[in-house]
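Quick question: what would this complex look like in 3D?
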Amino acid sequence: MCLAVPVRVTEILPEGMARAELDGVCMTIGVMMIENIAVGDYVVQHVGYAIARLDPDEARRTLELIRGASTKYDGTAT
Amino acid sequence: MKHVDDYRDGDLARSLARLIADTVLPGRSYAFMEFCGGHTHAISRYGVEDLLPASIRLIHGPGCPVCVLPVGRLAAAIDLARMQPVTLCVYGDLMRVPTARGQSLLTAKADGADVRMVYSPLDAARVAEQNPARETVFFAIGFETTAPATAQTILYAARKGLGNFSVICNHVLTPPAIDAIMATSTDGGPPGLDGFLGPAHVATVTGITPFQSVAARHSKPVVIAGFEPLDVLQAILMLTHQINDGRAVVENQYRRAVTASGNRLAQEATAKVFALRERFDWRGLGVVANGALRLNENYDRFDAEKRFALSTPTMSDNPACACADVLRGARKPAECRLFGTVCTPETPIGSCMVSSEGACAAHWTYGRFRDPADRPRLEPAGAA
Ligand code: SF4
């Protein structure tokens, strides 16, 4: 039940709610705990509420770090 | 899935595992506890342990809210649903958790009690809205991750003036749980424990600050780790480096969602509605001081424990079930003699076999056909 998944906000609704989408599945979630929420933002959704915003720059940096650290083994990974 | 699939790349996972194998010091062993059931699930599902060098041991932690719920709390809710004209709303994972009397929410429902599965606490508030003549009770469980959602729902109920909605609050907190684990053994926690994979979704809410004092108190490194296999592997690499360097600090692997100070609005909602519970009995860890939340006095009217004068019976688990040890990292699921014989996900004896985040369920689903002794391992460079 601790499942929390990244979803994309597609429409801002009244009363702190929003429509969001994950792989074509749409849902209505509470976004009142995310400051300055905007359409197109990715948020971590948990039991019907967004609890965090996903930072695309940090996501890219993490992947670059992993890829960079792994290049040493490119082509040699078994 | 964006922000998910990238972190499941098999080639990168193998490369990271090679890097870990190169980083471990020959002759040294490492034991890391993954706090969260979400980590346990990912580690089992993606076979992360199979990629790691033999000198790294992963220990399952207590971070599965279904698993740590003391059975008496559930029994009280089942009694309420059976005896009173209420609609009890629960997360689906709880339905099959057995109580000491052999009952579960599922058997109560089969006997006619009005028990409903909800995905969100807001769904429970909506049930109350749609049935104004009937009491609706939401059974709230979860860590700091989930408490803000319950808080927002109570604030919603207050705004809407819902007089027939209340909550049985079982929210628990992670730093006191880590402290309790470290206190379980005289030599400071599970034998040989070197560090923690810290809870990522909890930290999106709390930030990393609360874990800094945890790391300092116990001189153990904590790396806040995401839940995809590459996240877990990168975090293990970071922990390994800290151990090799003799450091014990908090590092944040899950930077894409976790900031130093966390989610201020979520913290405010939690603080507005809840107060610390002085004593809460965790399954596996026993009574933990200030390790759980209750509704504070301003929201008394939404507190089902007060509204229905609920008391929590003290109940022991099935004596043959090793859940309590499994939750403390003292025993592995396969070391329980009921594992896979009497106890399976179809006929769970303990809570660890019910939730997909439970260590026993994860091992049953993904790990039981592996013989650890035969596993191919990546060895550190230079090792014999
Ligand atoms: S296998 Fe079943 S009985 Fe044994 S510890 Fe796990 S949940 Fe309890």
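Answer marked as accepted. The longest helix of chain B spans residues 229-245.
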